[in-house]
Amino acid sequence: MRNPPARRTTLLSLLLFIPATALLAAAQQSAAPPAAPGKAFDVVSIRRNLALGSRAPNLTPSPNGFRVIHVPLALVLMTAYTPQAGGMFLNSIDNMPEWLLHETYDIDARIADEDRAAWTDPRNQPAMLQQMLQSMFANRFKLVVHRQMKENSVYELVIAKGGIKFAQTTPAPTTPGQTKPDPTTPAQPRPDGLSLPDGGAIGPGPNGLIHMSNLSMQMLATVLSEKSDRPIVDNTGLTGRYTFDIRQPQQDRGPSTTPDASPDPNANPAMSDVLKAIGLDLKPAKQQVEFLIIDHIERPTEN
């Protein structure tokens, strides 16, 4: 059973409150070396968090391991498993049980002393984190999954007629020892808000807009997928990083235009209208999309 749109909204809405390191494995997967087979946390404590009320979740690697506070396990699962082409399994997980989405947990996972040197190396940590989380899910949740490519309806993110209406981000000047500028470090100050581990950032902009700084088009497509009824994939051909302001889009059902009737000026616009304002558009298409299929999972034994 595929996750309905409302579930996907819940996932990314929570995701946007999590520190950037929570997205480390997903954003750096393509550049990270493979983890050594059989890597696992030394000690793992898992407890259900029954705290009531609104509370920002926390899901963060630390020098000693991995700490989760008040987080739905679906977010931990999406950290453990990411598509081989990069990005996240935001709307391409099948057979996900409701409790995985709605029950929140605290997890304190500690690494062994012999793994500490490799763990604290940022080149190793993303792959190690995924391997250790996968071992945790297999041991404590009896998780069995497989990956499957399916032809799926998608929206391709493309350049609209007339071209883009935003500028490529200027990277910060080189530092001593650098041979060329680092594209993940912009010259402009980062906005307050969510810092993405691939070098981008999302925060409040002027007049209620959302300021997106130093974003790749692949990351933009991933973020926009929350508001779509199907995956959004980057087909712009733009390989740089870009900075722009957009309005918060409404939950979209696909490309649309604003009706001739006077719309509510305070309502969120359709996603296609948001994108056209910056020179992008959505194009319906069929593509092979990687899905994560949950074959079996159980609630964990607490300790």
Describe what this molecule looks like in 3D:
The chain is α+β, with helices and mostly antiparallel strands and 303 residues long. It has two domains: 5-149, no CATH class; 151-288, no CATH class. 21% of the residues lie in helices and 27% in strands. A five-stranded antiparallel β-sheet has the order 7-12-10-9-8, covered by helices on one side. The radius of gyration is 20 Å and the shape is globular. 34% of the residues are buried.
Distance between the termini: 31 Å
What is the structural class?
alpha+beta
The strand count comes to 13
Strand content: 25-35%
Net shape? globular
Low-confidence runs: 17-22, 29-36, 256-267
Global Rg: 20 Å
Count the helices. How many?
8
- What is the total number of structural domains? 2
Instruction: Tell me the series of helices and strands, N- to C-terminal.
Output: HHEEEHEHEHHEEEEEHEEHE
- Assembly state: single chain
Task: Report the major sheet.
Answer: 5 strands, antiparallel
Strand order across the biggest sheet?
7-12-10-9-8
Q: Tell me, rounded to a whole number, the average pLDDT.
A: 79
Helix content: 10-25%
Overview in brief:
This protein is α+β, with helices and mostly antiparallel strands and 303 residues long.
Features:
303 residues, alpha+beta, 27% strand
List the helices and strands and how they pair.
Blueprint: H1 5-15, H2 24-28, E1 43-48, E2 58-62, E3 65-72, H3 73-80, E4 93-94, H4 98-102, E5 104-110, H5 116-119, H6 125-140, E6 144-159, E7 167-168, E8 194-195, E9 201-204, E10 210-215, H7 217-224, E11 232-234, E12 242-246, H8 271-276, E13 280-296
